[in-house]
Design goal:
By secondary structure, the protein is of the alpha/beta class. It has a single domain, classed as Rossmann fold. The chain is built from 11 helices and 10 strands. A 6-stranded mixed β-sheet has the order 6-7-8-3-9-10, with helices on both faces. Helix 5 crosses helix 7. It binds adenosine-5'-triphosphate and magnesium ion (MG). The site of adenosine-5'-triphosphate (ATP) has 10 residues, from helix 1.
Length: about 260
């Protein structure tokens, strides 16, 4: 097994005539927690979607695990990559237990194994099957639904999990709790790779082993939090970090 799990080589993406990603190259290793920051429209979601083939690269090469996406069955690739989005995307007419079991059912697991997995996954995200398994998504709070989203993404035991602003609709306290949980989850799961898009700078610096900072379809910097803070590579990155410093100064003034 190689150390690398996701590799982009000179990837570009056009929508019609508009070039939204140009010449993107990077490597992510197994087990890394990557956070992705950048302005609205900078190409974060597009990049994330290209990892699981929801969007197709216009040119360049993408490798996930040992698969070149160009040559792979994308439905198969998608089933092996967990995906958590802001809008949660639970099926409203299915119970929580059924929502988590969607992929295991598609993969044809036996019902005993599915039940055991659903129960275990609910425990992992601090819910339990007795109280929550038979409820419908609308009967859960936003934060609880988001936990179910994480449990569902883990259901097929994927090596890679993609998160697209999963906590942005939540209040600050719930959000902080889920950040701590997701960090713990990553640690406990061991060798899983998380690719986590967020607009929240503090979230990105708290969670990421490395932070990918994007602007206008390019990577401005892709480094550890400490390196980004100590050695911002571009003006865009230093401006971004200064927004945090300015906020801190405001808090100090209010004390
Ligand atoms: N299906 C599409 N068709 C046409 N243009 C698209 C499509 N999806 C995205 N784009 C464009 O591609 C660019 C990058 O979009 P993307 O969704 O990747 O940005 P983002 O960094 O995720 O932004 P945000 O932070 O607002 O979610 C934007 O200019 C967007 O308008
Ligand atoms: Mg986006």
């Amino acid at each position: 097994m190689t150390k690398e799990i996701i590799k982009f080589e000179h990837v570009s993406k056009k929508f019609g005539k508009s070039l939204v990603i140009s010449d993107l190259s990077f490597v992510i290793n197994r087990g890394e927690f990557i956070t992705v920051l950048g302005s609205s429209g900078s190409g974060k979601t597009t990049t994330l979607k290209m990892i699981n083939g929801l969007e197709k690269a216009t040119s360049g090469n993408i490798t996930v695990g040992d698969k070149n996406l160009e040559k792979s069955n994308l439905v198969d690739v998608r089933r092996h990559i967990g995906y958590v989005v802001q809008s949660i995307g639970l099926f409203p007419h299915m119970t929580i237990a059924h929502n988590i079991a969607v992929t295991p059912n598609l993969l044809g697991w036996d019902q005993e194994k599915i039940k055991e997995t659903v129960s275990r996954l609910l425990n992992i995200v601090d819910l339990n099957i007795e109280d929550y398994g038979n409820r419908y998504p609308a009967q859960l709070s936003g934060g609880q639904q988001q936990r179910v989203g994480v449990a569902r993404a883990l259901s097929a035991n994927p090596p890679v999990l993609l998160f697209d602003e999963p906590f942005s609709a939540l209040d600050a306290i719930t959000r902080q709790k889920l950040q701590e949980e997701v960090k713990k989850l990553h640690k406990n799961l061991g060798n899983k790779t998380f690719f986590f898009v967020t607009h929240d700078i503090n979230e990105a610096f708290y969670l990421g082993d490395r932070i990918m900072i994007m602007n206008r379809g390019k990577i401005e910097q892709f480094d550890t939090p400490m390196t980004v803070i100590k050695y911002p590579k571009t003006k865009y990155v230093s401006d971004l970090i200064n927004t945090v410093r300015e906020k801190q100064a405001l808090w100090e003034k209010l004390k």
